[in-house]
Design a protein that fits this description.
The protein has 263 residues and is mainly alpha-helical. It has seven helices and no strands.
């Protein structure tokens, strides 16, 4: 049952994540004039698209790797590599998003890092960089002892969720800031709720809903990868699960990974 709900949630999550990206692209293309890489306003338009894609959607996908039922059994190394690779992809997209906004600001003589949005965003990116390098050094490379990994794992998990929360907060404040700057002097002021404001606000709501669902899946204990040596209902044969009718079962020896195994 938990597995079925997980895949249903993943279907909803994939749809919401795709909509977050597509809505942001449409907003920048239809109302803000499209994209370029020349220091103009059109270069800035890459910033929200890349940040939503990298820091929210791809980051969330990387965070949910260990919730896949296929990762509950067998060697953990392939899932570690996938987890690290997706996070690296998210970080690269995020850096490109920062390059776009800094180059736009510098080209147009606009100050950098003065708003609350920018403070939250740069804090999220800095923590993300520290999180990735620490995770790579401690959890992916085989040198770290088990006690160190056990000590840092709760911290790693906490900051993973915290960075996502910061990223979502930064996206919401960035949408609001962009609308204030873009609609403050025209006939379609933000307070009149023109079609662009309604669409951008709806995009922000989608990002919030997406982020809340990701955080729920990350916190749901029934969808977490079991610790080594623990057997749960998700891994029991169907005949032995609670409520199932028992009948003779033939068992074969299964190798169990010991907790002290480095991978």
């Amino acid at each position: 049952m938990a597995v079925g709900w997980f895949y249903l949630s993943c279907l909803v999550l994939g749809s919401l994540g795709s909509m977050c990206i597509l809505f942001t692209i449409y907003w920048m293309q239809y109302w803000r004039g499209g994209f370029a890489w020349d220091g103009s306003t059109y270069m800035f338009n890459w910033h929200p698209v890349l940040m939503v894609t990298g820091m929210v959607v791809v980051y969330s996908a990387a965070s949910l790797v260990y919730r896949l039922p296929q990762s509950w059994v067998g060697p953990k190394l392939p899932w570690k590599l996938l987890h690290a690779a997706l996070h690296l992809m998210a970080f690269i997209l995020t850096v490109l998003g920062l390059v776009a906004v800094f180059k736009f600001h510098n080209h147009n003589k606009i100050a950098n890092l003065y708003s609350l949005h920018s403070w939250l965003g740069i804090t999220a990116v800095f923590l993300f960089a520290c999180q990735w390098f620490l995770g790579f050094a401690v959890f992916l490379l085989p040198w770290a002892p088990v006690w160190l990994r056990s000590l840092l794992k709760p911290i790693h998990v906490f900051f993973g969720s915290s960075i996502l929360s910061l990223a979502i907060t930064s996206v919401i404040s960035g949408i609001n800031e962009k609308l204030f700057f873009s609609l403050k002097n025209g006939t379609n002021q933000y307070s009149h709720l023109p079609s662009e404001a309604i669409f951008a606000n709806s995009t922000g709501v989608l990002v919030v809903v997406f982020g809340l669902l990701v955080l729920y899946i990350l916190l749901a204990s029934s969808w977490k990868r079991p610790e080594p040596g623990m057997l749960t209902d998700r891994q029991l044969p169907l005949q032995l699960r609670p409520g199932s009718r028992p009948f003779p079962v033939t068992y074969k020896p299964v190798a169990v990974r010991q907790p002290c195994e480095p991978w």
